[in-house]
Design a protein that fits this description.
globular; Aspartate Aminotransferase, domain 1; nine-stranded mixed beta sheet; Aspartate Aminotransferase, domain 2; alpha/beta
């Protein structure tokens, strides 16, 4: 990262260095005849401690730093090893060297909610509208909307592909590309599904206008007005909006910030309530960031089979796990065209939200998905599908994903540490292994809806906890997006939020 490179090269060799294991002790000066690698380690350690390099920042590659400093590769390797042994940095396989996460404060993760006894009608649309309106205002710091900043996406390359395709396929937009959608895109998705561990045939996909339409169509395919849908709690507000719009009811099932939906509570729910379908996000859920272990996914599929229930799987964040792994979707544990799992995905979180390219693999409900796609929107825009298919086939997507994951990992840690520093004692913050949102539990008594009002007055958008619940729970919770690169503007916004939380009844803030 440019900031890391500037900071690494801009700290004087006369700065102080904290020896290994003494990060809080009095520091000492390095002797003039110290080895080059010790001098380099000294400078970088001080840059980290002064905040020029923050947790999650990626350091320059060994070869690049060696060229810039005019030292040998061995010197840089020794410096990095010294910093690693001293607890300043960490190595991520196939990714490089990164500033290590803070270890001086242990912050608990948000607590899972209690089970709900009965389904509820959903009413979140008005509150969600305020979040989306703030997104359209360029003067508002967008901490409330889960989107990746355009500077981090290959939109320019995609647009060039789009322009070229428009010139070469001059009649591409002259007719409807009716469901199931563009064949070349469905073929690329079929190829990628092999990497997901859930091979899906090209004829099993239906392209949709983003995952939002995919989820709505999947719900219509398996349930009707008044039916009960079991969802995670907290649940992504877009899921709740879809349930609300279709006149269905939501049954909230507690979710753990690490492992996702509580399967014991889910099993009890389907035994005692008239659940018609289950809708979950097993890989990097929103807002928790939870990733279900494989044995839990297998258990969920068996539960659905035992109770004859369809499972709608929202997989839009599956490609954004920081370590580069691609967790298997639920569909991997129930493969084939007769699968009980309706897999929904899109490129909105990873590539181009404005292109509105998504998909649904409906399994045994494929024909119902097709029928509802016809009646909902008939077809998807042809040219954007063509551009995405071209990008997926070029190999550029995987290279982009590697860069994006690394950048998001650093950003998320920066935002997390800033929240920990700025918010009152008693605040709990999630520690996701992927995605780019934080779920923050503030001290009891802090009203996140009041916080939203005061934050908007100061030009800051947030997502208050009640929009993630059909029963308007999570009154003292807030979701914060780290999709925008860290900047003085973001830093000031987080600090302002911390002050507002204090005013609304938060306990004494941590010392800086």
């Amino acid at each position: 990262m440019d900031q890391a490179e500037i900071a690494c090269s801009g700290v004087s060799a006369e700065n102080l260095y904290r020896p290994s294991g003494e990060r809080g002790s009095t520091v000492r000066r390095m002797p003039d005849d110290s080895y080059l690698y010790e001098q380099l380690a000294l400078e970088m350690a001080q840059a980290i401690e002064r905040g020029a390099l923050r947790p999650g920042d990626r350091l320059p590659s060994v070869r690049r730093l060696a060229e810039e400093r005019r030292v040998s590769v061995a010197t840089v390797l020794q410096a990095y090893l010294r910093l690693e042994n001293g607890g300043h940095i960490e190595v991520r396989p196939k990714s490089g060297h990164f500033v290590r996460k803070r270890t001086d404060a242990v912050v608990a993760e948000p607590r899972a909610p209690r089970s709900c006894g009965a389904p509820a009608r959903v009413s979140v649309s008005d509150a969600v509208t305020r979040i989306l309106e703030a997104l359209r205002d360029p003067t508002v710091v967008p901490l409330g909307s889960a989107y990746v900043d355009p500077s981090m996406l290959p939109v320019a390359a995609l647009n060039r592909m789009l322009g070229q395709l428009a010139r070469e396929a001059s009649t591409a937009g002259a007719r409807y590309d009716a469901a199931p959608g563009l064949l070349t895109l469905r073929r690329q998705l079929a190829r990628r599904s092999v990497d997901w561990g859930a091979p899906i045939g090209e004829d099993e996909f239906v392209t949709t206008i983003g995952a939002t339409e995919g989820l709505a169509i999947a719900l219509r395919a398996v349930a009707k007005h008044g039916d009960v849908i079991a969802v995670e709690s907290p649940a992504y507000f877009g899921v709740l909006q879809a349930i609300e719009g279709l006149g269905m009811r939501a049954l909230e099932v507690p979710a753990n910030p690490r492992t996702g939906i509580d399967l014991d509570a889910l099993e009890e729910a389907v035994k005692t309530q008239p659940v018609r379908a289950i809708l979950v996000t097993p890989n990097v859920s929103n807002p928790l960031g939870a990733i279900m272990p494989d044995d839990a996914k297998e258990r969920l599929v068996k539960l659905a089979r035992r109770h004859d229930l369809p499972v709608i799987e929202d997989d839009v964040y599956g490609e954004l796990v920081f370590d580069g792994s691609r967790p298997r979707p639920l569909r991997a544990f129930d493969p084939g065209p007769e699968s009980r799992v309706l897999l929904v995905g899109s490129v909105s979180k990873t590539l181009a939200p404005g292109y509105r390219v998504g998909w649904c693999a409906g399994g045994r409900w494929h024909q119902q998905v097709l029928r509802h796609k016809y009646s909902t929107s008939l077809a998807c825009p042809t040219l954007t599908q063509m551009a995405v298919a071209e990008f997926l086939g070029s190999g550029g997507y995987d290279r982009h994903l590697r860069r994006l994951r690394n950048q998001l990992a650093g950003q998320l840690e920066r935002y997390r540490e800033a929240v920990i520093d700025a918010f009152p004692d008693g605040t709990r913050v999630s520690a996701p292994r992927g995605g780019f949102v934080l779920w923050v539990e503030m001290p009891a008594g802090v009203d996140s809806l009041a916080l939203q009002d005061r934050a908007l007055e100061r030009g800051i958008g947030i997502a208050p906890g009640p929009v993630f619940s059909a029963r308007n729970r999570f009154g003292n919770f807030v979701r914060i997006s780290a999709g925008m690169p860290w900047s003085p503007r973001a830093d000031a916004a987080i600090k302002t939020l911390g002050l507002l939380v204090d005013e609304l009844g938060g306990r004494r803030r941590r010392a800086a």
